[in-house]
Design brief:
Length: 83
C-alpha cells in the first residue's frame, strides 16, 4: 500500500461525495479506500471504479488515509485526480 501517491498528488478529491464525482467525470487516476470505512459507503465506490475501470487501492485505516491527505480527520476514500 503506497500512500506516497496520495501525499504527492497535485490534486485530490477527499471524501465520498468528491471522490465519487471525479470517478463519474472520468478524471480520477486512482481511488484509495479505507478498509475500516462503512461498507455501505465503500461498496458503491468499489463498483463504480470497476465499471469506470479506475484503479482501486485499499488503505489500512481512515486515519492513515486522512493523514496522507493532510487533514485532521479520517477519510473513507480519496481520489487522485489526473492532471
Amino acid at each position: 500500500m503506497d500512500l506516497n501517491k496520495v501525499k504527492q498528488a497535485a490534486k485530490l478529491a477527499i471524501g465520498t461525495k468528491q471522490a465519487t464525482k471525479t470517478v463519474e467525470q472520468g478524471i480520477a487516476a486512482e481511488v484509495f479506500v479505507a478498509k475500516d470505512a462503512d461498507p455501505r459507503i465503500t461498496i458503491k465506490m468499489i463498483n463504480l471504479c470497476k465499471k469506470m475501470e479506475v484503479k482501486l487501492t485499499y488503505v489500512e485505516s481512515m486515519n492513515m488515509l486522512g493523514k496522507a491527505c493532510g487533514i485532521e480527520v479520517g477519510a473513507a476514500m480519496a481520489a487522485v485526480i489526473n492532471e
